[in-house]
Write a structure and sequence with these properties.
This protein is an alpha+beta fold and 129 residues long. It contains 2 helices and 6 strands, in the order E-E-E-H-E-H-E-E. Helix content is 24%, strand content 29%.
């Protein structure tokens, strides 16, 4: 199988017909689907605080990384989706806190909405390890 689904007990299950992450076998490339600010049970985390939502998104990505045997410094690229560009600085603080000196390539996009109105931030990642 060229793409092996990866999941983690510390992250919520996928909400639809997709995998939380897919390891491209034979390449050591892990594609992590957009992570939302959800606890392990799927409930929203962070309320209306975009910075806390971003932290939870990154915690969920971190759980996937651990399940695949990767680490945050293996992240080559992230995509960040915001429902309000005014939250850019708050999300940047969460990213800087998580990544430290590591600076993956990144895309930041404003979107009209995410899958549920409670979510303000979604983060996806490409990992090479």
């Amino acid at each position: 199988m060229p793409a092996e689904p990866i999941s983690s007990e510390s992250t919520p299950p996928a909400r639809g017909h997709y995998s939380a992450a897919v390891l491209c076998t034979g390449t050591r490339i892990l594609e992590v689907s957009g992570a939302l600010a959800e606890g392990p049970d799927g409930s929203p985390v962070g309320g209306d605080d975009a910075e806390e939502q971003a932290r939870q998104c990154l915690r969920n990505i971190d759980g996937i990384l651990r399940a695949a045997g990767a680490k945050k410094t293996d992240i080559a690229r992230i995509g960040v989706y915001l429902t309000d560009m005014a939250d850019r600085a708050a999300v940047a603080r969460a990213r800087e806190e998580y990544f430290g000196d590591h600076k993956p390539a990144a895309t930041l996009v404003a979107v009209k909405s995410l899958v549920l109105p409670a979510f303000k931030v979604e983060i996806e990642a490409t990992v090479v390890f």
